[in-house]
Design a protein that fits this description.
The complex is a heterodimer. Chain A is mainly alpha-helical. Chain A is built from twelve helices and no strands. By secondary structure, chain B is mainly α. In chain B, 71% of the residues lie in helices and 0% in strands. The chains are: A mainly alpha, B mainly alpha.
Amino acid sequence: MTSLTSTSVEGQRPPRSWNWVGILPFLLFSSAFLLGPAIILLVRSLQANEGGWTLGNYRQLIDPQVLEAYGLSVRISIVTAVVGGVFGFLLAWAIIYGGLPRVFRSLLTTFSGVASNFAGVPLAAAFIFTLGRIGMITALFGFFGIDLYDSDFSLYNFWGLTVVYMFFQFPLMVLTITPALEGLKKEWKEASENLGATSWQYWRHVALPVLMPSILGTIILLFGNAFGAHATAYALTGGTLRLATILIGAQISGDVLQNQGLGYAVAMGMVLIMGLSIGLYTILQRRAERWLA
Amino acid sequence: MTVTAPPVVIETPPAIATPVRAGAGSKVLAWVIMLAGVLYFFAPLVATGERAFRAIGRTFSFEAFRRVITDPEFLRTFGESVINAVATIVVSLLVIVPTAYWVTLKVPKLRSIIEFITLLPFVIPAVVLVFGLIRMYSRPPLAILGSYGSTRIILICAYAALSFPYMYRSVDNGLRAINVRTLTEAAQSLGATWPTIVWRVIFPNLRVALLSGALLTFAIVIGELTVALYLGQHTFGPFMSNLVRNFVAEPAALTILSFAMTWGAMGFISYLTRRQPGKRRMRRRP
């Protein structure tokens, strides 16, 4: 092994460093199980089914089936990100600045850790027992003479999935936004009070503008979180609600698009959207650090 | 994908902030918001609990739980998932710990590249990853997905890759909290070899970080559906998914069990981080 401190003698070029070799195992592993699979999909998406390179697969993304799936995914992700984001922000505000007993704070932090990781089959099951046709809340509404399923609502459509996704969306907002809220300096509040600002004016003109990059960034993060979700929707609807992820799953098991190349393009489109949202989140987070670091 | 939480791992509970005065109006508002949150959170749990404990025979009983845990299919799939989860944790630790250590010590310039790669699971959703894995490993020269056993290895490695964001975050935070260079130099000057340094100096100092990462990985892997489903693995996630469509009481019992496991893992993590030496302690424990 090389010596720890590489102090080079003056005027002499330091020997070529081989230190990067140490991360080779990591790079190989990531290539085999993370980058490789993605690159294979990218390459295949650029190949015509008959061979040769083409952008034709991407041109076919305007297929109605595909557009509908993307549209549904985008709508559900936007609604759950915005509603979950606003509610998560309000909750974080309530425990930090709302004067609630302190015990709520540690409870909510632990709960958020649990709920933001409680997706998939158990989550779907829990909501079937709650809002499904024989669910407890459905029965409760029935008791008061309201049939939930008479209206547009069903656990197995857009609105149902929205309610379910919220279970992991708003806790993620709480976890991500709490540090930002705690970063608000007491001096800003005091200064605005000295200048005669009301509490509302302080939030409207000082706190919220400072927090805005964090809030927007986290909402974008929630968007990606919902957009990439597959297990919960699959367990809930068995694949009948065609989100983009569900469409990809169906393509894996049975080429529902009847076009291999298009399937790869749909998957890459998904990666592109996820990449954009994570990238935007990172940029906004960095901006937020200017004030809240 | 079950791996929901983006670059957020359970953070140390913040030091108690100074008490904040809240006006009466905002206090009422805070209570209303909290109440709505509590209701929304507990309703599914109460409903599930009611099904799990009462649906059979209409009186309170553990019958559903008894049926579940004596179901040979449950035991088999759950056992398989536990082994998968443990294997995932071992693989993930073996890849991440030496890498994070090496980067901190020797090649800090490469840190951002490593960070970028570990965050890729947030860009490549599980369903896309499994799609790519199938295409990559089902044809020569890499036709590995032929048998159940070899597919299982791919599954475990994919899980390890999906755990990178949490594991790397956790280990990196742990490494930042200790002085890696000083510890390493001290050990070297006492004549320790590299394996000794990693095993007897770095590892013990990272115990809490490693445990946190491991527990989080366990919570995510144990009931994972998407990757296992499309790789045709008979694990706990697909088993539960089938049950949900056919039974009532049993899946309710399984949901309660899953929830208890997730809660246990998260509770343990926050307990560990809180009593970590060198961190300021909370004045009281919840």
